[in-house]
Amino acid sequence: MIEFTCVTKQYPDGTVAVDDFSGQFPPHQTTVLLGSSGCGKTTILRMVNRMVEASSGTITIDGENIAQRDVVPLRRSIGYVMQNAGLLPHRRVIDNIATVPLLNGTPKAEAHARAEELMDLVGLDRSMARRYPNQLSGGQQQRVGVARGLAADPNILLMDEPFGAVDPLVRRDLQAELRRIQSELGKTIVFVTHDVEEAFTLGDQIIILANGGQVAQRGTSEEILAHPANDFVAGFIGLAQGERTLHRSPDGGGVLVDGHGRAVGVLAEEPAP
Amino acid sequence: MNYLLDAFAWIADPAHQAGPNGIWARLGEHLGYSVVGVLLACLVAVPAGLWVGHTGRGRGLAVGLASAARALPTLGLVTLLGLLLGIGLVGPMIAFVALALPSILAGTYAGVEAADRVAVDGARAAGMTEWQVLTRVELPLGMPLLIGGIRSAFLQVVATATLAAYVGAGGLGRFLFLGLRTQDYPQMLAASLLVVGLALVADIAFGLLQRFATPAGLRTTR
């Protein structure tokens, strides 16, 4: 369990990125921080591994205040996956994945064997192990990034818009893979995105943030869709614009249309699995 | 054209090549001074440049110092130091170091700063210590620029090491100043050609070194 209590981040120039944020990220679940750019979601994420230091308030992991921990072991115990992968361009794929185990002193052969297993897990062909990051596609680099985040088998995985820079088809693949991986591993994932679809696809819990890290609403996607807390939430998730209000098409045939009359899907007879 | 042929003939003359006053000995001295001057400058400028590049602190100071040092008139400095410290190698050596410092400093911090910031951020987030970030990420990625700085410093010092002879410390400048005093123009031109040749060879060597130091992952492309 990761718990934020009254956490504020103010930069020296006076900008308040996060103002009095409190929240819990439950274990073995995916919590999505959803908000537009500049709302402080990445700042909240980066305070978990102290890439950003909180100005006030406390952050605990399993009851232990992280401010009292050494940053280096703290960071090594938490997986981190970032936008654009952030791989080391001068290291081969296999060494990039094995970064944290190698830092922790795991023998090279063992670390590489583990890295190869992770390549299987994230759907990378083992023949890519000897390549350099710039020889991979954006989607493949992102898979390497996920494998690197998982390499030391951390309980917590922080993901900062990890699929933001890949094209929509690849993004959908990666989201599906992440769901599969999560169903196998059951990590505590904190996932930052501005993409509502992505949040609904991946999040067990979704926290919608307004400016300054103000919590606009938290809940499951069903709860948020059924009872948007306010106009901001309704607007952000597209309820206000009618995009998510579905009706049967007047032409019949089970086609569903949204508030603008655009066809968006078909209605199945049997209930959802 | 005659002078040029005479100069080559002067170099080719076996009588000018061997012995303690010969071309090989002076060439060795010249190269030695340059190497020592640049190495001494590296000892100061590389750690300072790494610190500036890694922390981002003192950048304004480093830029200011580097440009100020570039504006120093080297001949004036050698003369002044010669007057202060007397005949010998110490004066010119200080001048060589002062001349080499700015390029190496600038090359080093520019190299560190040029390392992909996203990769550096990722390395830090993965749990590298600041020292590991510097030595395993920023330094290897910045190595080509760092060597580039040493390369231009070395070329400047090779050219300037000619002035060592001005205060009696030998090197290829010895032939030049001797030729000047005896109005032996072929000898002067020969000395210049030797300096130019040395600079060209050094430049090619550094060029190869720079290519070799470029990390493999940055050389290959998809």
Automatic annotation (TrEMBL), chain B:
It comes from Propioniciclava soli. This is ABC transporter permease. Residues 27-206 form the ABC transmembrane type-1 domain. CDD domains: TM_PBP2. The keyword S-adenosyl-L-methionine does not apply. Its main location: membrane. Keywords: Membrane, Transmembrane, Transmembrane helix, Transport. The keyword Signal does not apply. The chain crosses the membrane at residues 31-53, 74-101, 153-177, 189-209. It is a multi-pass membrane protein.
